[in-house]
Each structure stands twice: as C-alpha cells, then as structure tokens.
Design goal:
The two termini are 22 Å apart. This protein is 22% helix and 18% strand. Strands 1, 2, 9, 10, 11, 12 and 20 form a 7-stranded mixed β-sheet that branches. Strands 8-14-15-16-13-19 form a 6-stranded antiparallel β-sheet, covered by helices on one side. 51% of the residues are buried. The protein is of the alpha/beta class. Bound molecules: flavin-adenine dinucleotide and iron/sulfur cluster. Iron/sulfur cluster (SF4) binds next to loops. The site of iron/sulfur cluster has 14 residues, from loops.
Length: 563
C-alpha cells in the first residue's frame, strides 16, 4: 500500500528547513524533497585556500578574468545564475538574473547572513504613501517568530532603539575593524548612525554549536555550524528526531489534485535515474524559493485550474521584487601604511540602518540601508586589478604597490526597497523546457523612477560619507557604467520575493495571512513568495519567521482535523 505522508515539504532552504524543524519538534512527520544532493559537512570549503581551488577560483578557462562568472567559484557556492540543463529566459527589453542553488540547505549554505527584522511600518506601506500593498499581518504578529528564530539561530547585534531597525535577541557582536571605526565616525559627522551588523552568526555556544572562530569565510559554509544554514542548523537536528525523511535529487514537477481541489500527491523527477515518480500527501508546503514555487504552481495545470494551481486570482508569478542595489568604493589614504592584521571576523561588523524613516525631503518612497566592506579580507580573483591599473611596472615594484594599497579600500553597498510593479513578473515560457521537460520561467523586469531616484540618493550619501573620511572615490565598475544610474540588474541582489503573495482578498492575493492558499486549503507556501512588499531589509529573517508561523498554524490545523 502506498504511504500517504502527513506533510511533504518541497525545498530545503530557509523556508523549507524552518518548516521541517518546527514540525518535527511538534511531533509531526515530514517528507522533505530537495532537488539537489544531500549535503555533508565535508562539502563545505570554508578552510580551503584559493590555491587549492581549480583555477584559483577564476572558473574554467579563466572566465573570472574575461566574462562575468555565473557562480562564485572560489566562494564554492552550490549553484549560480546558470545551471546546466535548467535554463530560464528573459523577455526582450528586460534584464534579470536568477541565482539558484541545488543542494540540501539551498542558498542558505552560502548566503551573506545579514539578518534584519522588518520595521513596524514596513507592514502597512500603502497606508503611509499610497504605493504598493499592505500586508495582512502586522509587526506584532511576526515579532514572536523573529524572536524564536533569533533564540534558536543566533544573531549578532546591539540594542539601539532605532525604529527602522527593530532590536531583537542578540549575540554579542565582534569588535569593529579599523575601517569600520572610520566609517562610524564619518557617519556620525553627517548625523547618521552606524551600528553593529546583525549577522546569523553565534559568538557564544547555542544548542551544542560552538561559537564562531572568526575565519572570515562564512560565504563558503561553516564546518562548526557557527553560522546559520538550514542544512546544518535545522535539517540535520530535525533528522535526528526520526520524524524527517529526506528525498534528495528529487525535482518536483507538479502538484496533483483531486476532484475536490485538494493536493493529493507531488509528481517529481528522480534525478539519479530520470524516472518520473510520485509521493502521496495530506498536506504540502511549497518552499522551493519564490520563483520556483511560482513555477510549480503555474505548471500544475488541470481542467479545474487551467491557469495553474491556486491561481484563481491570476496573481501567481506577479509582483516579483528584488532589492535595489548600488555600490561605491573609495581608496582611503588614512588606512595606508597600517600594520596588516587579521581582520577576518565574520564578514562585516558594521552596518548603517535607514535613518530617514519619516522620509523628509526625499524624492523617492521608502528607504535603504548600507552594508560596509573593507579590511584585509582573503584576496580573490580580480582583487588587485584596480591597483594594477593605477601603477606602472611589474615585479618588486608592483608587489610593493599591492602591499601598500591592500586593505585601504572601503566599499558601500546600498540595499533599498523596490515598489512592486506590474511590469516585473515571471511566467511560463511557452517554448522552452528544462532537461526533464519541465516548462521554464520567463522573466520580465522594470525598475521605476522610485528605484532610480533612490539609487541617486544612495550615491550622494556614499560620496558624502567617503569624502568625509578623506576617501578618493573610485570610478564605477563595468557592471555599473557611469553613463546610467548605477542600479543593480533585476535579481542580482538575490532577494527575489513576492510571486505568490498573501492578502485578505482572494481576488488579489494567492495566500491567506497564514500563507495557506485561498483556493487549496492543504497547500501552504513558506519561502519569499508570500511577501507583499520588499522592504530594505534582506529577506531571509522574515522568510524564516513567516515559515515558523506557518508551520505552527499548520500543526494546529492538523490537530483540529481541518486540513
Ligand atoms: C551569495 C548570496 C548572498 C545572500 N546574502 C543574503 C543576506 O545577507 N541576507 C539575506 O537575508 N539573504 C541573502 N541571500 C538570499 C538568501 O539566500 C535567500 O533569501 C534564502 O536562501 C531564500 O530561502 P528559500 O527557502 O526561499 O530558498 P532557497 O534557499 O533558494 O532554497 C530553495 C531550495 O529548494 C530547492 N528546489 C527548488 N526547486 C525545487 C523543486 N522543483 N523540487 C525540489 N526542490 C526544489 C532548491 O534546490 C533549494 O535547495 C543571499 C543569497 C546568495 C546566493
Ligand atoms: S567566520 Fe565564524 S561563522 Fe563564519 S565560517 Fe568562519 S567560523 Fe563559521
């Protein structure tokens, strides 16, 4: 007799890992399907030197020197913006890149771990400025789940009382580095507060996980599980309960429904054999990442729902958002000639929360925060190209120039809110299929003046801070030509959200306030897809908090026999 699983979770990133752990802790059995292979801790490349990586991380044929790389080869990500046999297309006139990972834990194995709560006002943006949409929940609804996540995962930070950056339960942060102290002082002169960064890293032991040993390689995993990845922080412990079964290399193709419209099974491709298989389920949680989840729903067509599953509103795939990105760096003479010291830490230890949350005197809505780069980090491919371009000669002379300038650059990355618009969405490409015959996504993308004006403001602010600490501004990079507003490509910040949004009105939203489909009551979504807006805060903390809340709700509905 075929097993009917109580809950099938599709995708094991931030959302899927959280749902799996929370349900397992509540005594519920979970079948977790993951399109990539199982992760083992020895897959992590945290302590591998560049010279041990093929081509020193430049990628095959040295593409890191000659063309944009699709992944981060030295960073050892399990994925990139191009996956073999899994294309996507971009509509004419649009520019979009889609970074995907295929492994247990998804992109959380190597994400930046900037971990920020939304502000109270982020949940009702439309009421404040008339743009976009309000969320069906408030800060109060989500705050207990931010707190649960912070206690369990561990987030660095300091209590600051800044409205745009609500405080949480924090791990003690690491000390600021020399360049960060300069930035903090320069910001203070301009009336802007710069505070300890909020990173998903532990500096004291948590649940048997040892604290960070400051190797500075968080982007390449963490062998001691001192930072967060859903794989080693949530899924491995959940598997130990005996209530979690993982099917790796299982690429979900479609959700299958019965006459009553409930999901009864998930059809998937066993990537090891190429065979089409099915698992039966009582409930399903989609957590394949915002765009993959939309793709699965759109590909799950039946005579009862020809527009795709849970899509009576027609909103699935619509209102795709990314974060607005722009950057600027400067060489800072004050940092020249300093003794070189190990400034690795856990990435950046300082960040600048949005300071003008009343939006006084601005020609754009909402806001942005600033992430700060610099210090004596591990050199990577192209790290010294600026120095080489600035200095004549080679040999000892060039080596000396590199030593003199190493660590003297400070870089700012703005991360801002995009207003959802009708021109940014994903849909099924009618002509293109992946290697398993699954129709792929086609992306449409457009920034509006709201985002372009915000980037202009970012650039003015970066310039003001950098100049006030004596920085010599560096010319924009090739990816940000000086001839246009230096805004990131759609998708480039890898914060895509909003494609299966939640709301109170089933005519304009796909999910209710618990991320349960309006049309299909045993279907839930637990990744970035339910987002209604995309505030400047990096999305993963909110994905985790929402997924936690959804899992608890699902458990309760199962207990009551409602799903
Ligand atoms: C380099 C980098 C830096 C980042 N920095 C930050 C940061 O500092 N802060 C922040 O908040 N966010 C950051 N992000 C974004 C962050 O990684 C994502 O927000 C987060 O991982 C999303 O979680 P998710 O569960 O929605 O999806 P993912 O983490 O993408 O996981 C989805 C999983 O689903 C699987 N899957 C997909 N399709 C299927 C299918 N059909 N069947 C079965 N399984 C499937 C995938 O293989 C994957 O494992 C960064 C991302 C990258 C790549
Ligand atoms: S810096 Fe800390 S958290 Fe990051 S990989 Fe190294 S030990 Fe792990």
């Amino acid at each position: 007799m075929q097993t009917i699983h109580d809950v099938v979770v599709i995708g094991s990133g931030a959302g899927g890992g959280t749902v799996t752990k929370v349900l397992a802790d509540l005594g519920i059995s979970v079948l977790l399907m993951e399109a990539g292979p199982m992760l083992t801790m020895s897959d992590l490349k945290e302590h591998v030197w560049p010279y041990l990586v093929p081509h020193r991380g430049a990628g095959e044929k040295g593409q890191g020197y000659t063309a944009p790389r699709s992944g981060f080869t030295f960073s050892a990500t399990f994925g990139g913006s191009q996956l073999e046999g899994e294309p996507y297309t971009v509509a004419e006139g649009s520019d979009f890149s889609w970074f995907r990972s295929r492994i247990l834990g998804g992109r959380t194995n190597h994400y930046g771990r900037v971990t920020l709560r939304f502000a109270d006002y982020d949940f009702n943006p439309k009421s404040r400025d008339g743009l976009g949409f309000n969320w069906p929940i408030t800060y109060k609804d989500l705050s207990p789940y931010y707190e649960k996540a912070e206690r369990f995962i561990g987030i660095t930070g300091t209590v600051e009382g800044i409205r745009s950056a609500p405080d949480g339960i924090f791990q003690p942060p690491a000390a600021l580095k020399a360049h960060e102290i300069l930035v903090q002082r320069a910001c203070a002169k301009l009336g802007i507060r710069a505070v300890a960064s909020r990173q998903a890293v532990i500096t004291t032991p948590v649940n048997g996980r040892p604290p960070c040993h400051y190797c500075g390689q968080c982007g390449r995993g963490c062998m001691t599980a001192s930072n967060y990845a859903s794989s080693y922080v949530q899924i491995f412990p959940a598997m130990k309960t005996g209530r979690v079964q993982v099917i790796a290399n299982a690429m979900a193709r479609e959700l299958i429904t019965d006459e009553g419209g409930k999901v009864t099974a998930v059809g998937y491709v066993d990537k090891a054999t190429g065979e089409d298989k099915r698992v039966s389920c009582r409930t399903v949680v989609l957590a394949a990442s915002a765009c993959e989840s939309a793709r699965l729903l759109l590909n799950s067509k039946a005579p009862r729902h020809p527009q795709g599953l849970a899509n009576s509103s027609g909103v699935v795939g619509r209102y795709l958002m990314d974060t607005v990105g722009s950057s600027l760096s400067a060489r800072v003479p004050a940092l020249s000639g300093m003794p070189h010291y190990n400034s690795d830490g856990y990435g950046s230890h300082l960040y600048v929360p949005w300071w003008n949350w009343n939006n006084k005197g601005l020609n754009f809505p909402r806001g942005y925060h600033i992430e700060v780069g610099g210090g004596y980090g591990m050199p990577g491919i192209g790290s010294f190209s600026g120095i080489v371009n600035r200095h004549e000669g080679y040999g000892l002379k060039m080596k000396q120039a590199v030593r003199d300038e190493y660590g003297t650059t400070i870089g700012f990355s703005g991360r801002g809110e995009m207003i959802p618009n009708e021109h940014s969405f994903c849909e099924i490409d009618p002509d293109v299929k992946d290697r398993w015959g699954i129709p792929v996504l086609r992306f449409h993308w457009r920034w509006s003046d709201h985002e372009l004006n915000q980037v202009r403001h970012m650039q003015q602010t970066f310039r003001a801070i950098l100049e006030s600490l004596g920085g010599q501004i560096q010319t924009p990079t090739a990816s940000q030509p000086a001839t246009r507003v230096p805004i990131s490509r759609g998708g480039a910040i890898i914060h895509e959200v909003g494609t299966v949004r939640m709301g109170d009105d089933r005519r304009t939203s796909v999910l209710n306030k618990y991320c349960q489909a309006h049309d299909v009551k045993n279907l839930f979504v637990a990744d970035g897809a339910p987002f209604v807006s995309n505030p400047d805060k990096n999305p993963t903390h909110t994905i985790i908090a929402l997924a936690w809340r959804t899992a608890e709700y699902l458990a309760e509905e199962m207990r009551k026999g409602n799903v």
